[in-house]
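Justification of computing resources. Each target in the renewal requires a structure prediction run like the one illustrated here; the chain below, 85 residues long, is used simply to show the kind of job we budget for.
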Amino acid sequence: MANHAATKKDVRQAAKRRDRNRYYGKTTRNAIRELKGNTEKKVYEEALPNVVSMIDKMAKRGVIHKNKAANLKSKLTKKANAIAK
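Resulting structure tokens:
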């Protein structure tokens, strides 16, 4: 690492961002896992918009790619439709 003030600041900022992104990613993964494990129609449909919102925010922040976000949302919605039948 260089001994420039700007480089030291960049390292600090990168560490902050990494921790924040890990938090968002882990929280969203846990929410997805809970949603997938749920088989009750009413509870699933209530939780789905919140999880989709979390996924969209992760894509917006650049934590995950927008196509991955679309795939996750598609799979969750597909399961919601299967439960509804």
